[in-house]
Amino acid sequence: MKKISSLTVGFVLTFSLICSTLTFAEELKPIQLQKPQVDGGRPLMQVLKDRKSSREFSPEKLSNQVISNLLWAASGVNRPDSGRRTAPSAVNWQEIDIYAATADGLYLYDAKAHLLKPILPEDIRAMTGRQPFVKEAPINLIYVADFSRMGKATNEDKEFYSAADTGFISQNVYLYCASEGLATVVRALIDRPALARVMGLRPDQKIILSQSVGYPKK
Ligand SMILES: Cc1cc2nc3c(=O)[nH]c(=O)nc-3n(C[C@H](O)[C@H](O)[C@H](O)COP(=O)(O)O)c2cc1C
Q1: pLDDT the model gives residue 21
Q2: Atom number of ligand 1 nearest to Cα 52
């Protein structure tokens, strides 16, 4: 009798844990980003003068508008007729997905809908890099190449072109940040297998780089 009741208690506890996790997952809603402000920004030559890597971040969150501008600058759709983007991509494969790790959870940027899709209701910022500051930046972008979108290219070409394409996106982020007075640093120091596992990536999705963004520490 005693054995049955402890089994029952165990079952009820496990069941309620699963239910609360599911409820939590359901709570992470898509975030519709505001229209990007395409008429703002400082003159390009001044922005280039100020572009730099910074590794000290204030925990202050970025507004929906700033995230919208940031992601649109990174790789948003700038020609809706053709769906082409602010960053060039080899063969127009558009194989780089941008994930955003925030305190609320992990999202995937849908450039066409200009929307953040919920992926994981967990704060995985600390896992996006091997450096301690990554957990303090309010947003860590993770650039993931989807090799399945790259046709019949060889693996070597897929690696080369997806790395090159990520560079353009990262530089767009650097320039937007320099224009807006935001701190940023692109990063290769990542435990890729561990991060891919927690993000639930398929084997043909490859983490290329990550990039921390936030206000500079005062
Ligand atoms: C492909 C690439 C990988 C990088 N990886 C890291 C990194 O893992 N951690 C880091 O703190 N900085 C990283 N950086 C930033 C460089 O250290 C930085 O760009 C360099 O020191 C020059 O500084 P600057 O960007 O201010 O000109 C990386 C830069 C590039 C282009």
Answers
A1: 47
A2: 26
Full-model pTM? 0.90
Residue (of 56, 47, 61, 52) closest to 100 by Cα position: 61
Ligand 1 atom, smallest distance to 130 CA: 8
DSSP assignment string, 107-162? EEEETTTTEEEEEESS--GGGG-SSGGGGTSSEEEEEEEEGGGSTT--HHHHHHHH
Question: How do strand 77-79 and strand 84-85 relate by DSSP bridges?
Answer: antiparallel
Pocket of ligand 1, candidates 169, 186, 213: which has the most ligand atoms within 8 Å of its Cβ, to mutate? 186
Amino acid at residue number 187: R
Phi, psi of 36 (to 5 degrees): -65, 145
Angstrom distance (rounded) from CA 22 to CA 138: 25
Determine which of 21-35, 53-67, 128-142 has the lowest per-residue pLDDT on average: 21-35
